[in-house]
Specification:
By secondary structure, the chain is an alpha+beta fold. 35% of the residues lie in helices and 21% in strands. It folds into 2 domains: 30 residues; 135 residues, no CATH class. The strands form 2 sheets. A 3-stranded mixed beta sheet has the order 3-4-5. A two-stranded antiparallel ribbon has the order 1-2. Helix 2 packs antiparallel against helix 4. The chain is globular and about 95 Å long. The relative contact order is 0.15.
């Protein structure tokens, strides 16, 4: 009788261990990454010729408009590693929303124009830093319209027409 009792205990112990292993294995992982998302922010290279992605961990949001606001604020904060800031210091995000047709509206403060260094290439990199960062990180966005202080503006610094929404420009990315 004790041998049968011993075998029964061993079988029950094996079943218990297997059940615990299956429970732990089936549990969803709770990790830091569930609260964070990795996004690619596009900043200018040192020669101010191309855009290069810098990976950044940001607070995760399933809401595209909220993720867009988070991304833009990170882009405005500037790069962390050897790249050049594309949006002038002092610029702030006034508003951000996405229409049903996938056009994102980015309303920035006047510092985007007043503090901009000027030049065609610099203006292009500023615009596409913002456009590419949003479109390539948020699938719901297919075009971006830039507003300044709540209004349409002709240009940032005299070169690129801002009256129409922009699509991503992959040729600027290295």
């Amino acid at each position: 009788m004790s041998r049968k009792f011993h075998i029964l205990n061993v079988v029950l112990a094996v079943i218990a261990v297997a059940a615990v292993c299956m429970f732990v294995w089936a549990m969803p992982e709770k990790s830091h990454s569930s609260d964070q998302s990795v996004v690619h922010l596009y900043f200018a290279d040192r020669e101010n010729r191309f855009l290069i992605a810098e990976d950044r961990d940001v607070l995760h949001s399933d809401e595209p408009a909220e993720l867009g606001r988070i991304i833009i604020k990170e882009l405005i904060a500037g790069p962390r590693e050897g790249l050049m800031q594309t949006i002038p210091a002092g610029t702030n995000l006034r508003a951000f929303y996405i229409t049903q047709d996938g056009t994102a509206y980015v309303d920035l403060t006047k510092e985007i124009t007043e503090e901009h260094p000027g030049g065609v290439k610099s203006e292009i990199l500023t615009i596409y830093s913002l456009i590419n960062t949003l479109i390539l990180n948020i699938p719901e966005i297919n075009a971006v319209k830039i507003l300044i202080n709540g209004d349409e503006s002709l240009t940032l610094s005299g070169h690129i027409d801002l009256r129409f929404p922009f699509k991503a420009n992959m040729l600027l990315i290295r």
